[in-house]
Amino acid sequence: MKLKLLMPLVAVMALLGLLLLGLGLNSRDLPSPLVGKPAPAFSLEALEDPETILTEQDFIGEVALVNVWATWCSTCRAEKPLLMELARGGIPIHAFNYRDERDAALRYLEMTDSPYRTIAYDPAGDAGIDWGVYATPETYVLDAEGIIRYKRIGPLSRQLLLDEVLPLVEKLRAEKLRAEQLRADKRSAEAAGRAS
Fold first, then answer.
1. Burial of 65 per CB tally in 10 Å (0-12, 13-18, 19+)
2. Topology of the domain comprising 34-183
3. What does the CA dihedral 109, 111, 114, 117 come to, rounded to 10 degrees?
4. What's the CA gap between 190 and 91, in Å, rounded?
5. What digits encode the pLDDT tens for the residues 110-149?
6. Is 23 a residue whose pLDDT tops 50?
7. Which residues lie closer than 8 Å to 30 by C-beta, 6 or more apart?
8. How much is the pTM?
9. Distance CA 93, CA 87 (A)
């Protein structure tokens, strides 16, 4: 009889424990279901040229970062110097201008240097939904085939770049070079086979 009375209490305590555990998790550390999958499709105007349409295909071909930012996001502004360093160091960075006013974003870019190769304008946040944008800023690392290999919710820091982002970029670049070399070797072997 006492066991029947204790069971609901045990169940409530277990649920409370799980709830408290969940509240203690940092959303920045939650794994993204997009990692390991192709970048979601989108078709958006370029921020700086509404006549140009950008798609996920514009992000393919080289290891690159994709940064989600807005002018109203103070942490986006704070991480910009790090993005500038990465761009100057030869890392291509594409972007989504997320839920922003085009004029405000263009004024901001006129006042500062831009680290971005391309900026897709996403005023309604539709592409952001498909990309799983939780908050700005967010940064993704894409491999040369357009597969998402990393997602960061929140601003980048120098330590995060050194510990996670840059080693991953270098690893992905090395993988791309190996794959290109294997394809070149295969073509050479096929050509030699046809010549003999």
1. buried
2. Glutaredoxin (3.40.30)
3. 40
4. 34
5. 998 999 999 999 999 999 999 999 999 999 999 999 999 9
6. no
7. 153
8. 0.81
9. 7
- What six digits make up the tokens of 116? 């971005």
Q: Which of left, alpha, beta for 101 (phi over 0: left; psi -120 to 50: alpha)?
A: beta
* CB 100, CB 70: distance < 8 Å: yes
Query: What is the token pair recorded at 103?
Result: 């004029």
